[in-house]
Structure formats: C-alpha cells, structure tokens
Amino acid sequence: MATAAGWFDTARDGEDLVIAIGGRWTLEAAKSLDASLQRLLPAGARSARFDLAPLEELDTAGAWLIERTRLAFDAAGVPVTISGVHPEHAQLLDRVAEAGPPPPPMVRARKVPGVDFVAGVGEGAVAALRQGRDLLGFFGLVILTALGVIARPGRIRMVSAVSHLERVGLNAMPIVGLISFLVGVVLAYQGVDQLRQFGAEVFTVNLVGIAVLREMGILLTAIVVAGRSGSAFTAQIGTMKVNEEVDALRTLGLDPVEVLVLPRILALMIALPLLAFFADIMALLGGGLMLVVLIDATFPQMMQQMQDAVALSHLWVGLSKAPVFAFLIAMVGCFEGLRVSGSAESVGRLTTQSVVESIFLVIVVDAIFSILFSYMGV
Fold first, then answer.
1. DSSP secondary structure string, 221-256?
2. Are strands 16-25 and 80-83 parallel, antiparallel or unpaired?
3. Parts of the chain belonging to CATH 3.30.750.24
4. Is the dihedral of CA 209, 210, 211, 217 positive or negative?
C-alpha cells in the first residue's frame, strides 16, 4: 500500500508473511499509513517478517507504527522478525520498543456525592499538618541559630538590622497612623451611637481607650505589618532563591538563616512595639476628636476622662504582645521565602500564603493572650 511519503507491500513465503516497508515513514505519512495498517491481518500466517531494507526515512511516528503492528501480530499469535534495518534506524526502533505502548486511557469512576468534598477536606488537613510541622522545624532552627549568634555577639549583622528597621518601622508610620486614626474615629462614632440609647455617651471614652490600648491598636498594626513587611520578606528572599543567591551564600560558607532571617526578625521585633505605641496614640487622637464633635465636650476634658478611666496597665498589656507578633510575622515571611522553588509563580503564590499564615497566627495568638490575661486577672 503506497502513500505520498511511505508504503508497505505484503507477500507470502510459504507459511510466512513478508511485509516490505519502504519510502519515508514520517509524521506526514502517519495518518494514511495508520489507516492501512489497521486493516492489515496475519491471514493465517504462522510467522511474519518485516523487511526494512527499502526504508528511506524514519521518525518517531513511523517507528511507533512499525512497533504497534509488531505488537498486534504478537497478540494474534504470529511472531515477528525484523530484517534489513539500516544502522541509522536501529537505535530509534529500539528506543520506541523500550518505551512500550501508551498507557490505557483513564476511566473516570462514577462520582459519588460528597466524596470529592471529603477528599478535599482530607488533603487540606494533611497539607496544613505538614505546613505546621515544617514551620515548627524552622522555628527550632531560628532559635538555635539565634542562640549561637547571642553566644558570639560579633556575628550580629547590625547594619542589615538597622536597614530593615528603617523599612519596616519608619517607612510604615504613615499608613499605620492613618489606619489607626480612622479606626479610632469609627470606634468613637459607633460607641456614641450605641451608648446614647442609655444616656451614657461619656463612657465611650472608656470603650475607645480600653479597646485601642488592649486590642485594636496592636492587632491592626500587626495585620498591616504582616501585609506590608511580611510579604516583602517573602518576596525579597524568594527572589534571591530564584536568582540562586541563597545557594551562593551557602557556597561561601554563610548560613542563610543567620544572614537573611535573623536581621529581619530583630528589626521587626524592635519596630513593631514602637509602631503599636504610635498606633495607640493616633487611634486615641482620632477617637478623642470625634468625641469632641459628637458629645459637645472639649478635648482636654476627653483626655482627662480617659486618664481617669483607663489604667496604664492596658497599654502594657497591648505592647507586651508586640514582640511575639513581630517574631511570628518575620519568621513566617522568611520561611515562605526560603520555600520558593525557582519560578516567578512560586514567589507570588508563597508571598500570598505568607500573609495569610501570618494574619492567622497573629489572631490565634492574640486570642490565646486574651484568655491568658483574663485568667490572670490582668
């Protein structure tokens, strides 16, 4: 049977079937040759021989057609021998024979309602447990490295820490201050609106003062820093992983945790308490100004009422959480950055993941602090 590029011819030699294969068995001829080969049958022969001496050109598609025909004959109980193979075709035929036939098509099982949902929940739970295990291991590595640096203070990279302190602290003041001011305004407005029903508008000062100093100031600051600085840590270190700079550090005998992680953690643990204090001041200022407008009182009167109603211990309760939140945000940001696998897509995905994980851990730890302080009567 001939085509524009390749052909084959059949003949009988006693009980043997001889198939001469010639021309160009390439991808261009594969469709026509395939249709003809599908109709080729052993026709009672006891054995078959493929004569490839006339073959002029062969590529992977043509080699697979020859191999598939040989397998079909073998399945029909007709052994096949191949002769006349040109040396330049022999290796390709051997590689195709080693690869074997393609796997059978997957048969999708009938969907059972709810199974995919349960499977997804299980996969998510396993992934979360693995992530928690890896993060806990990284926490231990950071602590051990930090203890080693503390034992040798000369290894502390103060220049890097001060540089990061400026980025995560000083440069974050405008956005932190603005958000805190507006949150103070909202708290004061909502407090007055609700307490007016009981004629107790003046106690909005207590509400704003305690809520800001104990919870809202530090929590909002931590969330803003997680989205701003934690994501920056992941993107910076992740980009270094993509550019193989982290591997270069290891080649030079430097520890990436000591060089990249510890300065960022130190800078954020210094910056976040200061940012939280600044956020408290701005939130109280916004709440005080709104109360002056809403309840017809002077600003000094509001400040005096707040001083009488809000103890200094509330400020220390809020600020005591800041170093813990800072450590968590910086650790998660650096951890996800070091997990980048060498592509821009990985950098973006893990940057988003670091922000989500940081905010989740901050809220969980804040809840633990609240329960602990309540139990202690603080």
1. HHHHHIIIIIHHHHHHHHHHHHTTHHHHHHHTT--H
2. unpaired
3. 6-99
4. positive
| Residue 14 tokens, joined | 């006693």
Reduce the DSSP state of residue 350 to 3 states and report it: helix
Residue 288 DSSP SS3: helix
Cα–Cα distance measured from residue 101 to residue 97, given in angstroms and rounded to the nearest whole number: 8
- 109-128 in b/e form (b: 16+ CB < 10 A) is eeeeeeeeeeeeeeeeeeee
- The type of residue at 203 is F
pTM of the entire predicted model: 0.69
310-363 pLDDT, tens digit each: 888 888 998 999 999 999 999 999 999 999 887 778 888 899 999 999 999 999
Q: pLDDT by residue (tens digit) across 146-176? A: 998 888 888 888 898 999 999 999 999 999 9
CATH of 6-99, one of 1.20.1730.10, 3.20.20.140, 3.40.1010.10, 3.30.750.24: 3.30.750.24
Q: DSSP of 76-115, one letter per residue?
A: TT--EEEE---HHHHHHHHHHHHH-SPPPPP-PPPPPTTH
Q: Stretch 10-20: mean pLDDT, rounded?
A: 80
Closest CA to 187 of 201, 203, 207: 207
Return the percent helix, strand and coil in the chain, to nearest 5.
Answer: 75, 10, 15
Task: Name the residue among 321, 290, 300 with its Cα closest to residue 207.
Answer: 290
Residue 6 binned pLDDT confidence (cut-offs 50, 70, 90): confident
In contact, 258 and 149? CB cutoff 8 Å: yes
